[in-house]
Amino acid sequence: MKLKPIFAEILAIRIIPKVHPDMIKKFDLPPNHSSIGMFTVTIDDIGIVALDEATKQADIEVCYSHSFYAGSAYSSGPLSGEFIGMFSGPNNDEVRSGMEAVIKTVNKEAYFEALNEEVSHVFFAHVVPRAGKLLSKEAGIKEGESIAYLIAPPLEAMFGIDIALKEANVELRSLFKPPSETNFAGGLLTGTQSACEAAANAFREAVIHVANKPKHY
């Protein structure tokens, strides 16, 4: 089966060079942070990977990230998408560097894969070779360790993660039980980079198997 890569789209970006003190307090920013960058994107998991990448490329801290309920098809407005990410930095230059990392990741590096021409059946089998601040915290691992970030529709995800754990020398660190805010499911698996690659490949093949024979047991 030939899979089509599905990239997300960044819908809106803003940088606030000097955040109001009330906003600094509400977002509990570090004492020396005065700038905020924010973006919305059409696919939440890609937004999370991009936000994590930004923490490796610039002196920033994630101050808020959240998926929107039901996904981008039911968003609150044309610029809402499926996810909002916000991060702070000590100055405008660091925040801009972080945003550049976000844009590059969304446009070129992280993508879902479609199982059909209608692009209605998709999944995410992405390996993060070196986790940043956001994903390492979510997975409960050290920064710099590898992660297999696996997402699919509910049944496909649960079946695929079980197969991935059996086929590769990885550990399940986070399980996103169905339904997520966007009605998907998945998990974060950790191990060596090669083990994470093997896990992602096993997950991909398992999802394809379900797609080809959904009622076969």
From TrEMBL:
The keyword Membrane does not apply. SMART domains: BMC. It is found in: Bacterial microcompartment. The gene is eutL. Keywords: Bacterial microcompartment. InterPro entries: BMC_CP, BMC_dom, CcmK-like_sf, EutL, EutL_PduB. This is Ethanolamine utilization microcompartment protein EutL. GO terms for cellular component: bacterial microcompartment. It holds the Pfam family BMC. GO terms for molecular function: structural molecule activity. Residues 109-214 form the BMC circularly permuted domain. Its main location: other.
